[in-house]
């Protein structure tokens, strides 16, 4: 690590650049331990999560789901349910949700917490000085939390026809009749399902052989089956090669197996990933090291190649989740302020994630394809939600709980849940892995009947039955036979 010389005068203990999930957590943590902290944001407080990511997408998912449930009226005993809606009104509701949550991330709130908030473009001059709006600030430590932006592939003609991203789609007030979604990952899938439910004809293009390629094939197929049922056309192993306009119509040209196909569309959503924001604020001059993925390279304490400069959140990776941004930010802030006394290292062995499609997909730890790829021995326990009483009563009996354990032991290596509220249910296994207990304790824990949460216990029960001591069961059988005589 480089060891830059400390300036004589230090105005701040910590300067945080970026007020998204990571930056806000870092500033909050520093203020809570009475450090003097500055927070610099050039755009919107709350970052992507509040303004264009988690919050608006979940608000839209909720509205679209109500419409989808109305379409299943007969399953719930009704002849029909009619919903009259205006797409602009739905999108205005999304904005209202953002506005309601915004005060949680506001300058007023963080100022009240003791954080000095600056609006403007930060420029790192030296490892101990940052300028904003022509004002120079000095500091003992810097945390870079500048986030990421949507990645738009360099497809010929895409700029000419125009495109939407996960940042800009929230400005729509007219429903696209035909929406082309580029990308079969979580963001693309969540929005594709929303728009097909709201009435768009949705076509999804994915270059890989299946959607959700990081999940097990069975999980991918469960989601794909639901999407096909709802009318999403999914073109896997297709490559979008160019976009053009013919007679006023927007056309995408994609290829598969050497054959070209033209698809007419009214709006194109690029949802193929995000690129870390590392340019134009001083990293190049300081030669802050970047990874092959374009993110800032950090150690497990979230420190860069400068001992007093840290990075966290999407700009650091490797996980672009709000909860991981907060996790990394706590480590970055505490290590920056107290690293000479204590050091806290990040641990990515138990990273939870969720995809908020219907059904939801949630996972923590390993799945089968990851275990095989890393030559990790495992046993698989599966429970099908078709057998769960509450899921049957709710007409949501589609999905599974799949748990990987150490062979012959109840230690959990990972768990995947597909189904209603999977993102909530996975907490059972997150807690177990975090607190180092296994399937036996989960099975021994009383769960309320009838709930979806019982699925986790029933999966543990299947594991326990499979690992029952056969010799003792044989003796028990003889004992009961003797008692009947």
Give an overview in words:
The model has no long low-confidence stretch (mean pLDDT 95). The chain has 3 domains: 12-45 and 106-150 and 275-338, FAD/NAD(P)-binding domain, CATH 3.50.50; 158-273, FAD/NAD(P)-binding domain, CATH 3.50.50; 352-466, FAD/NAD-linked reductase, C-terminal dimerisation domain (Enolase-like, domain 1), CATH 3.30.390. The chain contains 17 helices and 22 strands. With 485 residues, it is α/β, with parallel strands linked by helices. A hairpin with a 2-residue loop joins strand 13 and strand 14. It has helices at residues 21-32, 47-51, 54-70, 87-101, 107-112, 158-161, 186-198, 217-230, 283-286, 322-338, 368-373, 389-393, 422-425, 427-434, 439-444, 454-466, 470-484, and strands at residues 12-17, 37-41, 115-119, 122-126, 129-132, 135-144, 148-150, 164-165, 178-182, 201-206, 233-236, 239-246, 249-256, 259-265, 267-270, 274-276, 309-311, 352-355, 360-365, 379-384, 400-405, 412-419. Strands 1, 2, 3, 4, 5, 6 and 17 form a 7-stranded mixed beta sheet that branches. It has a 5-stranded parallel beta sheet with strand order 8-15-9-10-11, covered by helices on one side. Strands 18-19-22-21-20 form a 5-stranded antiparallel beta sheet.
């Amino acid at each position: 690590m480089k060891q830059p010389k400390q300036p004589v005068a230090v105005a701040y203990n910590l300067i945080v650049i970026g007020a998204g999930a990571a930056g806000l957590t870092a500033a909050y943590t520093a203020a809570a331990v009475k450090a003097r902290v500055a927070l610099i944001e050039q755009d919107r407080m709350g970052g992507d999560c509040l303004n264009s990511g988690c919050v608006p997408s979940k608000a839209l998912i909720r509205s679209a789901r109500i419409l989808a449930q109305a379409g299943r009226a007969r399953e719930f005993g009704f002849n029909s349910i009619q919903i009259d809606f205006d797409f602009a009104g739905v999108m205005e509701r999304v904005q209202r949700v953002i506005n309601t949550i915004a005060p949680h991330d506001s300058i007023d709130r963080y100022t009240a917490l003791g954080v000095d908030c600056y609006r403007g473009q930060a420029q790192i001059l030296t490892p101990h000085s940052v300028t904003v709006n022509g004002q120079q600030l000095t500091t003992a430590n810097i945390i870079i939390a500048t986030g990421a932006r949507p990645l738009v592939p360099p497809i010929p003609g895409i700029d000419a026809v125009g495109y939407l991203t996960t940042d800009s789609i929230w400005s729509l007030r007219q429903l696209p009749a035909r929406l082309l979604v580029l990308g079969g990952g979580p963001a693309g899938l969540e929005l594709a399902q929303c728009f097909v439910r709201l009435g768009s004809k949705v076509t999804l293009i994915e270059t890989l052989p299946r959607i959700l390629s990081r999940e097990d094939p069975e999980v991918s197929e469960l989601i794909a089956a639901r999407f096909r049922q709802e009318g999403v056309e999914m073109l896997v192993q297709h490559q979008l090669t160019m976009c053009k306009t013919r007679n006023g119509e927007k056309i995408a040209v994609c290829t598969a197996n050497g054959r070209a196909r033209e698809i007419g569309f009214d709006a194109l959503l690029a949802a193929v990933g995000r690129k870390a924001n590392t340019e134009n604020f001083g990293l190049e001059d300081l030669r802050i090291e970047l990874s092959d993925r374009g993110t800032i390279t950090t150690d497990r304490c979230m420190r860069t190649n400068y001992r007093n400069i840290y990075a966290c959140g999407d700009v650091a990776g490797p996980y672009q989740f709000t909860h991981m941004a907060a996790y990394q930010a706590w480590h970055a802030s505490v290590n920056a302020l107290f690293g000479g006394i204590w050091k806290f290292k990040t641990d990515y062995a138990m990273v939870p994630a969720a995809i908020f499609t219907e059904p939801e997909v949630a996972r923590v730890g390993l799945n089968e394809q990851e275990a095989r790829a890393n030559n990790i021995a495992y046993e698989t326990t599966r429970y099908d939600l078709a057998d769960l009483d509450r899921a049957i009563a709710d007409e949501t009996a589609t999905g599974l709980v799949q748990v990987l354990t150490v062979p012959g032991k109840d230690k959990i290596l990972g768990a995947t849940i597909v189904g209603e509220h999977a993102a909530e249910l996975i907490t059972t296994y997150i807690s177990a892995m975090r607190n180092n207990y296994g399937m036996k304790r989960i099975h021994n824990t009383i769960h309320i009947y009838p709930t979806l949460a019982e699925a986790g216990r029933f999966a543990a029960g299947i594991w326990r039955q499979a690992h029952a001591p056969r010799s003792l069961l044989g003796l028990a059988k003889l004992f009961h036979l003797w008692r009947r005589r």
